Amino acid sequence: MKATWDIFCTVVDNFGDIGVTWRLARQLAAEHDYAVRLWVDDLRAFEHLCPAIDAELDRQRQRGVEVRRWSTPWAPVEAADVVIAAFACALPHDYMESMAGRDKEPLWLNLDYLSAEDWIVGCHGLPSVKFRQVQKFFFFPGFQPGTGGLLREAGLLEQRRAFVQDPRARGDFLRGLGVDPTDGARLISLFAYENDGLASWLDALASDTRPTQLLVPEGRILVDVQRWLGTKDMAAGAREVRGSLTVQVLPFVPQEDYDRLLWSCDFNAVRGEDSFVRAQWAGRPLLWHIYRQEDDVHLDKLEAFLELYSQGLSAPAKAAFEGWWRAWNRAGDMAPSWKAVLENERELAEHAERWSLEQASRTDLATALVKLYLNWI
């Protein structure tokens, strides 16, 4: 019989949590042939990433995964062979009793947040809390050997390479989103949280000698975009021009199409965790809007990634890239750092591709989980 996997997800950041767990569930089912249940407490948010989801159903199958509504009161079910609590979410008490009642204890994992901090390597795989005799273990995604790696489907970079080498495929894809690529225009995707620093970046883009098409999926940053434009109620398909800058609002698209959007752009501004990783697989210079935490502890995570990612860059390119990220995440003036980025654009683009290939040389996260389970049994 197929091994069973239960993945539990509470939707905190709208799309980051469900984005990661949905990709993981699909990969475990499609590439490793496991029976996977994905428990989600907010099917409305899930619907944005998977339009086929029926938010009224408590149980349904999508893409080879059994999707279950995580609701209260909890309806008792038999615990799976592998239990993943995504991002330290607390499992239902009755489910933990079911884990403890199994003849063979399940492998219980806390799939933690992604970080480049040094301590991650030392903590990956360590035991966490116990419930009765069932031990939970930490599983940390990461960028370095000794971590759980990054989510990456089989053949992903080959698909990306074929796509970017086919101008017709790229053009057809963009036109399918309602985007008409202008010859010579720079394409930038913008998916971020609210940011007071956006206006200075848009000012710089609008006054540039080279035209820019800014593609903005519907989301939280759209409020700041509208404020700068002086418009209201922009929806998918809306298009505004200011100087050299064309702003276009895109609909929220399934994950595979979002990947293609990232592949199609020259620069990608992303947020949270799921889009952050996908932008790295795109092999394009990226700008990360990290999820803000109390006491600015998120800035430590930002600096840890910058230190790792910037290795191998020349001093001017390193300073430009890091200054760009710090200005964005501190809502500072984006114009000086953006100018420096453009002066080092070629090197940053080449570096982004090398980084993508380097990360792809490591075991992907789903395969690392499977290896851990096989060792467990």
TrEMBL record:
<dbReference type="Pfam" id="PF10093">
    <property type="entry name" value="EarP"/>
</dbReference>
<comment type="similarity">
    <text>Belongs to the glycosyltransferase 104 family.</text>
</comment>
<protein>
    <recommendedName>
        <fullName>Protein-arginine rhamnosyltransferase</fullName>
    </recommendedName>
</protein>
<keyword id="KW-0328">Glycosyltransferase</keyword>
<comment type="function">
    <text>Protein-arginine rhamnosyltransferase that catalyzes the transfer of a single rhamnose to elongation factor P (EF-P) on 'Lys-32', a modification required for EF-P-dependent rescue of polyproline stalled ribosomes.</text>
</comment>
<keyword id="KW-0808">Transferase</keyword>
<dbReference type="InterPro" id="IPR016633">
    <property type="entry name" value="EarP"/>
</dbReference>
<dbReference type="GO" id="GO:0106361">
    <property type="term" value="F:protein-arginine rhamnosyltransferase activity"/>
</dbReference>
